[in-house]
């Protein structure tokens, strides 16, 4: 949708914009992840997203590179799937969310990932995100299972809790670092994963580096 | 159809078939705040426990403990049996409904408040304790048409003594809501009405006697529970006896504001949905998780939920709560039981009630971006507009807080105008008004007055009249739709799990929908469930929830179901909700043509920034602006929608773009600024200015003719397979 704007900004250097899309089954917490990331808030019962919601958030990496995410938070119900292509088309990155307390939601995540691999830009960076870590006592999806799948597919993977905030900033920061920036890649290579807003906790390094399938080429 | 006000005899009366002796078992003192427990409660309770029990048993061990836990009250064994039997035939469940004690109580309290208001209206100060009699407004039954008047009457009329019959109590609070009259229905009346046939019963009547009865009973129970103090066991057809509940709440809390009353009434009315049955059996091939969802709602319909209206409630389905003992115990404790009834409102409840606005919202959902929808641009009619100055700001004025709901200073005079404009349809059984029609001499006033905003207490009647008028729906149509609604409750829907995921997050800032599995949430679930079975191509679509919830603020579930059916059939929502959302795309095409012809600069800006209309307008067209403007603005838009049809939403979309046109064409605008702006939550600076602009726009015959033509053009493009590139 705004490819020209992205290109222009990228050529300017320091400030980079990326289109990010959230996909996943209904009620896994896509909107809550975005709300936590963008406003650092949480609602127990967030209104269901109709169509898609657009938000932006900026992340500053350690090397002072600024990355602006243009986030498309999509509706989860199957009926809205027909609208999804317009949101992931030209997306630079996708966060596919599942709910660790719902085994079926991981299956749904797999279908989204297959669709992205088939239909989206080949250079898209995909992160698989198991949300609702605060409900780990009711876990139905083991970390091993999800990680194994992510490794096989070359995806970034982590678990988050939009409710507590755990892992949320980290995953967006990790994505920002994984994206091909116009800034000198050497600078970024040495950067650790923590952005300014990063919390301690989940180490995304492994997952990020464990994504061999991701081409590093610029996709502008 | 139902008269907004008094008229209706609440379904409750049904119960009365059996003459309920007004026994006041216990001195029902003041309206107990939150929960009143009906005496009958016990039996009912019991029943519910049984039901619960069975559910659990299906799912596992706990029942035992649970059963014991939850229901402390000594049940009468007999009751169970009754229930069982009844299940077979009728929806015993209904009967069971006693449940809502909590909720009911809550509402009841509201009802009370109303009542009290009505009574005490003369004095501004709320009466310390409502006299028991307050509830029973025996005198005026269905008589009044006009809400207002009725109020007055009511107040004067009520005998303090009235407590006697539960029916009387209930009646007022619930259905009749708004209107006034809460107190109107007297027990006596109810009895009579009963006999004759419940006028209101609108919904109920459809089925076989059984069905009717059951349904009614269900309603009744709620009400009865709520309001009334003690019911004679006999009163409930089924197992009724629950612990006596006290009449509700203290009027004290409430101020005589109308708004409160109204909202409360609404709640009540909503709440009352009777429909569910207590015990269900899984259908063949039904997914067990889906059955669990459906069954849970049915069970809770019977048992009620603790703290309904002011507590959050416990999740039982959405998170597929595990089997841990702790979680089960927690869930058990969330069921209403006889031990919790109190006469006084507790601090929590007080606080919630104090914060409730006239529409029933006690808290404001946090919206991401609130922006002012300025009035100034609306002073200019829609016409060819040159692009604004490049130096204009790309951003609109942000708003920090959602403004509180307000009441138009003209509300009072409008109410009297509507009093004169609408007349009851032929009085039906019992003399109660089921529906309203326009007085022929006032036909010329309808459009203008609708644009000015239907007074809230007339809203239910006006909406009902507009909807019925468009569809040509008769009372018998409503009866059969109500029967269909109830029948569908016994059938599985593949959408049950999705609906359950969405119910607790649908206008959860509204007091009726706040408590998990509270009466409002149950009604919402049931309406969406039944509606999902209505049209196989639409099924359930996210976005229907806020629409149904809005209607539930004004009507009982059966009626909401019927209205949804009519919206689907006669207001073209079928096209909107069908796979691929063809009706929405058509509306977007029309919107784009209007923008292109009147605001070419804006249209060019959208093209330049590559902003498709679907990216910001999808939720407008699918939720009918339910989550994009303040509730009271949404209501006004809906007033006109029901008059004008779906074109209204195209006009609103164009109005928003019109207001922000200079921001959109600003030289410093870009993809992000434009899209963020149009994805905002809009606070109209002046609602009347917005409505006037829309009135002028939709009153432009040339434009309307063009809209018709563009719709045809779109259909042609679709038929030719050329629609793919026809939109921005």
Describe it.
The complex is a heterodimer of chains A (220) and B (728). With 220 residues, chain A is α/β, with parallel strands linked by helices. Chain A has eight helices and six strands. Chain A has a single domain (3-209), classed as P-loop containing nucleotide triphosphate hydrolases (Rossmann fold, 3-Layer(aba) Sandwich). Helices cover 34% and strands 21% of the residues of chain A. In chain A, strand 4 (93-99), helix 4 and strand 5 (125-131) form a beta-alpha-beta unit. In chain B, the strands form two sheets. Chain B has a two-stranded parallel ribbon with strand order 1-4. In chain B, strands 2-3 form a two-stranded antiparallel ribbon. In chain B, helix 2 (63-70) packs parallel to helix 12 (325-333), helix 17 (475-488) crosses helix 19 and helix 23 crosses helix 27 (647-659). Chain B is mostly helical. Classes of the chains: A alpha/beta (220), B mainly alpha (728).
Helix/strand order of chain A: HEHEEHEHEHEHHH
Q: Within the largest sheet of chain A, what's the order of strands?
A: 2-3-1-4-5-6
Radius of gyration of chain A: 16 Å
Number of helices of chain B: 31
CATH superfamily of chain A: P-loop containing nucleotide triphosphate hydrolases
Taking pLDDT < 50 over at least 5 consecutive residues as the criterion, the unreliable ranges of chain A are 1-13, 182-220
Oligomer: heterodimer
What is the makeup of the main sheet of chain B? 2 strands, parallel
| End-to-end separation of chain A | 13 Å
Under CATH, the topology of chain A is which? Rossmann fold
Number of strands of chain B: 4
Radius of gyration of chain B: 25 Å
Number of self-contained structural domains of chain A: 1
Q: What is the helix fraction of residues of chain A, given as a range?
A: 25-40%
């Amino acid at each position: 949708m705004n490819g020209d704007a992205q290109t222009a900004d990228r050529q300017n250097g320091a400030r980079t914009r990326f289109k990010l899309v959230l996909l996943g089954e209904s009620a896994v917490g896509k909107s809550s992840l975005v709300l936590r990331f963008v406003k650092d808030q949480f609602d127990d019962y967030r209104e269901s997203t109709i169509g898609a919601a657009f938000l932006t958030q900026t992340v500053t990496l350690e090397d002072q590179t600024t990355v602006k995410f243009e986030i498309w938070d999509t509706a989860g119900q199957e009926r809205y799937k027909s609208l999804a292509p317009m949101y992931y088309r030209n997306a630079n990155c996708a966060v596919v969310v599942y709910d660790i307390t719902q085994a079926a939601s991981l299956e749904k995540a797999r279908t989204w990932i297959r669709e992205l691999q088939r239909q989206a830009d080949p250079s898209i960076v995909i992160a698989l995100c198991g949300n609702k870590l605060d409900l780990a006592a009711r876990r139905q999806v083991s970390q091993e299972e999800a990680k194994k799948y992510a490794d096989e597919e070359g995806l970034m993977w982590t678990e988050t809790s939009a409710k507590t905030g755990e892992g949320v900033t980290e995953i967006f920061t990790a994505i920002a670092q994984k994206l091909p920036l116009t800034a000198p890649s050497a600078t970024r290579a040495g950067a650790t994963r923590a952005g300014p807003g990063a919390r301690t906790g989940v180490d995304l390094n492994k997952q990020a580096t464990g994504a061999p399938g991701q081409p590093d080429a610029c996709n502008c | 159809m139902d008269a907004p006000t008094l008229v209706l005899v609440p379904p409750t009366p049904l119960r009365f078939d059996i003459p309920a002796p007004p026994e006041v078992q216990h001195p029902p003192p003041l309206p107990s705040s939150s929960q009143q427990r009906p005496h009958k409660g016990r039996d009912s309770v019991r029943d519910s426990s049984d039901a619960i029990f069975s559910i659990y048993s299906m799912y596992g061990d706990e029942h035992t403990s649970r059963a014991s836990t939850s229901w402390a009250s000594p049940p009468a064994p007999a009751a169970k049996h009754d229930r069982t039997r009844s299940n077979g035939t009728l929806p015993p469940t209904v009967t069971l409904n006693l449940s809502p004690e909590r909720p009911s109580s809550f509402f009841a309290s509201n009802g009370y408040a109303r009542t009290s208001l009505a009574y005490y209206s003369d004095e501004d100060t709320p009466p310390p304790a409502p006299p028991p009699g307050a509830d029973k407004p025996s005198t005026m039954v269905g008589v009044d048409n006009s809400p207002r008047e009725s109020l007055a009457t009511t107040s004067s009329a009520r005998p303090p003594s009235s407590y006697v019959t539960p029916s009387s109590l209930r009646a007022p609070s619930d259905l009749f809501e708004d209107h006034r009259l809460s107190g109107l229905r007297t027990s006596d009346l109810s009895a009579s009405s009963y006999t004759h046939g419940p006028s209101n019963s609108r919904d109920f009547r459809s089925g076989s006697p059984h069905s009717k009865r059951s349904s009614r009973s269900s309603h009744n129970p709620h009400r009865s529970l709520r309001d009334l103090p003690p019911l004679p066991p006999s009163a409930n057809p089924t197992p009724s006896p629950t612990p006596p509940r006290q009449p509700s709440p203290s009027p004290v809390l409430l101020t005589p504001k109308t708004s409160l009353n109204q909202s409360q009434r609404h709640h009540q009315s909503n709440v009352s949905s009777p429909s569910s049955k207590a015990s269900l059996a899984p259908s063949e091939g039904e997914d067990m998780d889906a059955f669990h969802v459906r069954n849970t709602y049915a069970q809770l319909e019977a048992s009620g939920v603790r703290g309904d209206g002011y507590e959050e409630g416990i999740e039982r389905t959405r998170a597929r709560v595990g089997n841990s003992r702790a979680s089960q115990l927690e869930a058990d404790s969330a069921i209403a039981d006889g031990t919790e009834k109190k006469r006084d409102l507790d601090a929590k409840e007080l606080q919630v009630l104090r914060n409730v606005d006239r529409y029933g919202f006690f808290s404001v959902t946090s919206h991401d971006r609130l922006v002012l929808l300025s009035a100034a641009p609306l002073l200019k009619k829609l016409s060819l507009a040159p692009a604004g100055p490049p130096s204009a700001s790309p951003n609109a004025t942000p708003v920090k807080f959602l403004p509180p709901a307000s009441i138009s200073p003209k509300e009072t005079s409008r109410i009297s105008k509507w009093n004169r404009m609408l007349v009851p349809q032929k009085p039906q059984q019992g003399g109660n008004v089921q529906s309203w029609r326009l007085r022929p001499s006032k036909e010329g006033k309808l459009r203008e007055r609708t644009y000015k905003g239907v007074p809230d207490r007339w809203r239910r009647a006006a909406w009902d009249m507009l909807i019925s008028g468009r569809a040509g729906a008769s009372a018998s149509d409503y009866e059969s739709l109500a029967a269909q609604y109830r029948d569908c409750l016994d059938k599985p829907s593949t959408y049950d799990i999705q609906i359950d995921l969405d119910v607790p997050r649908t206008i959860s800032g509204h007091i009726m929908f706040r408590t998990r599995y509270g009466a409002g949430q149950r009604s919402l679930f049931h309406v969406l469930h039944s509606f999902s079975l209505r049209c196989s191509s639409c099924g359930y679509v996210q976005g229907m929830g806020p629409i149904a919830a809005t209607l539930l603020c004004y009507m009982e579930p059966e009626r909401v179901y019927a209205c949804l059916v009519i919206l689907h059939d006669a207001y073209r929502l079928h096209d909107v909700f069908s796979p691929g959302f063809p009706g929405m795309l058509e509306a977007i095409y029309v919107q784009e043509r209007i923008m292109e012809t009147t605001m070419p600069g804006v249209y060019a800006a959208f093209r330049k920034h590559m902003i498709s209309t679907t990216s910001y307008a999808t939720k407008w067209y699918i939720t009918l602006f339910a989550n994009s403007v303040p509730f009271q603005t949404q209501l006004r838009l809906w007033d006109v929608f029901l008059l004008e049809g779906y074109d209204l939403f195209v006009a609103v979309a164009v109005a928003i773009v019109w207001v922000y046109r200079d921001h959109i064409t600003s030289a410093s605008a870009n993809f992000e600024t434009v899209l963020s702006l149009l994805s905002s939550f809009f606070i109209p600076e002046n609602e009347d200015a917005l409505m006037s602009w829309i009135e002028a726009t939709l009153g432009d015959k040339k434009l309307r003719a063009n809209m018709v033509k563009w719709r045809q053009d779109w259909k042609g493009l679709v038929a030719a397979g050329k629609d793919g590139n026809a939109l921005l």
